[in-house]
Known about the structure:
Number of domains: 1
Oligomer: single chain
Amino acid sequence: xxxxxxxxxxxxxxxxxxxxxxxxxxxxxxxxxxxxxxxxxxxxxxxxxxxxxxxxxxxxxxxxxxxxxxxxxxxxxxxxxxxxxxxxxxxxxxxxxxxxxxxxxxxxxxxxxxxxxxxxxxxxxxxxxxxxxxxxxxxxxxxxxxxxxxxxxxxxxxxxxxxxxxxxxxxxxxxxxxxxxxxxxxxxxxxxxxxxxxxxxxxxxxxxxxxxxxxxxxxxxxxxxxxxxxxxxxxxxxxxxxxxxxxxxxxxxxxxxxxxxxxxxxxxxxxxxxxxxxxxxxxxxxxxxxxx
Length: 292
């Protein structure tokens, strides 16, 4: 499907079973709540005592923004670290290390999350690495291995861009499993089909271990619309045996928490308990699948 897939020459290399796990949230279709899901999922893991790194691989930087970090203000971010990890691009290297870029946030007493922010330069990543000879689709994977990030975190949560380009291929080659948020409509369904085709392409190339399908997350579900139930039912039939999580309805609590750049776990009121329970159940299911 993509010509940069055909340039891989490295041997297949799996992930250590006793190391931290990498989870990506992906859909080619934008506006499906992917970043919201990633943000709250990361907090769910953190509230269960896991050491969590959030990795923003979307040049828009919305994941970073939820932590109060604006991509337009960042002079040092994941793009620089990725370029620094490529020997062929030494003239473009900057004198920074991951510990210079990673930001730590105590989201609530005793609960902290680290963030590797995005930046606008990430939008030019594909062009910057176009001429290198090493496998371009394994840059992120090799960066994570070079700095041994798996041994430093229990979970790394990646928010990817709503595209099908090289950034997405790098994420899929680096992660252990993928969660697919979607809105139950035909446009989002097509976005799912497109991203799943990329996973299939990676599997056929044998360039790395293919990430597990951790499940589908119906989001922004409107229970008042009969058509929404019909659409979800039809989409379920096309998803095979993979897990389909309980739908997240378009609750006011999501809007309230996002407006304040908080997760649903930052609230003690009863109105957030159902959402907290949903994310905790998702964490349990994902953890079980990743360690099976």
